[in-house]
Write a sequence for this structure.
């Protein structure tokens, strides 16, 4: 499956609008630090902004179809201490890579971020059983 973080770099004609949308989503994510119920929503909204920046309706549809699942998994993963600040820091790095049109870095930062999320989710699940 293609890495969503790579797509905004390709869509240069609307990059300014995409970067503004991503920056607004990132700012909302930052303002939600310390408020887990709000942070998980802004986390998913940041990922939606990346999907929107692809200008691919199918990818946006897939993201939206999975958004409830994403919210539930964030709720669990955010129970791990330090999860929200770590996720936000990853979001900052992903945003900067997209803004700077650095496809390889965007893909690398997204892969690292998703691996961290997977690890936190695994840790949260192991504690709940």
């Amino acid at each position: 499956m293609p890495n969503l973080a790579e797509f905004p770099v390709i869509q240069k004609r609307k990059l300014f609008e995409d970067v503004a949308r991503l920056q607004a989503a990132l700012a909302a994510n930052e303002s939600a630090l310390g408020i887990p119920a709000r942070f998980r929503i802004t986390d998913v909204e940041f990922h939606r902004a990346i999907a929107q920046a692809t200008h691919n309706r199918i990818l946006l549809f897939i993201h939206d179809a999975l958004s409830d699942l994403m919210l539930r998994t964030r709720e669990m993963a955010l129970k791990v201490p330090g999860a929200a600040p770590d996720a936000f820091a990853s979001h900052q790095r992903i945003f900067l890579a997209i803004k700077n049109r650095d496809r390889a870095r965007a893909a690398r930062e997204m892969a690292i971020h998703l691996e961290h999320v997977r690890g936190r989710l695994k840790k949260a699940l192991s504690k709940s059983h």
